Amino acid sequence: MAGLLYVLHNSAYALSPFPVGALSDRMGRRPLLSAGYLLGAAVSLALGVMLTQGKGGWIALGVVFALGGAMLGIKDTLEDAIVADFADAELRGTAYGMLGTVNGAGDLVSSVVVGALWTLHPLWGFGYAAVMMAVGAIVVMRVK
């Protein structure tokens, strides 16, 4: 079943970038990226509750994994597109490098924090991730 869950996750991840990119050309990237981060917060919280409280079944878990994959497709597509929108052509490579550096450092710090919280209780790790994604959604919409 774990393999099937990741098939769902990866399929949603592979299928989401094209429609999200097309939609972002029409309605703007920031609102969609913010919505993607909020989706990530909801997925993290739902997964944390499901795994720690024994709530939901295989279908619910499949939906959560698929939504998690879609969230990654949204995030990966729109973060890169926003960099292309705001960086001048001659600095675009540097801007992408900075995005990778910030994302990598953030991934390292969040892995350490979530791992430490997970050892106390798994829901604390998932809850922290949900809060940070919600904060990211707010920052994306509010900061110019």
Which SSEs are present, and which pair or pack?
Blueprint (H helix, E strand, L loop, with lengths): L1 H14 L1 H11 L1 H25 L4 H29 L5 H29 L1 H21 L2
Task: Report what the structure shows.
With about 140 residues, the protein is mainly alpha-helical. It has a single domain, classed as MFS general substrate transporter like domains (Growth Hormone, Chain: A, Up-down Bundle). It is built from 6 helices and no strands. The protein has helices at about 1-15, 15-25, 30-55, 60-85, 90-120, 120-140. The longest helix is centred in the middle third of the chain and has 29 residues, at about 60-85.
> Structurally, how many domains make up the residues?
1
Number of helices: 6
Percent of residues in beta strands?
A: under 5%
**Mean pLDDT value:** 94
SSE run? HHHHHH
Short characterization:
With about 140 residues, this protein is mainly α.
What characteristics describe this protein?
single chain, 144 residues, mainly alpha, Growth Hormone, Chain: A, 6 helices, 90% helix, globular
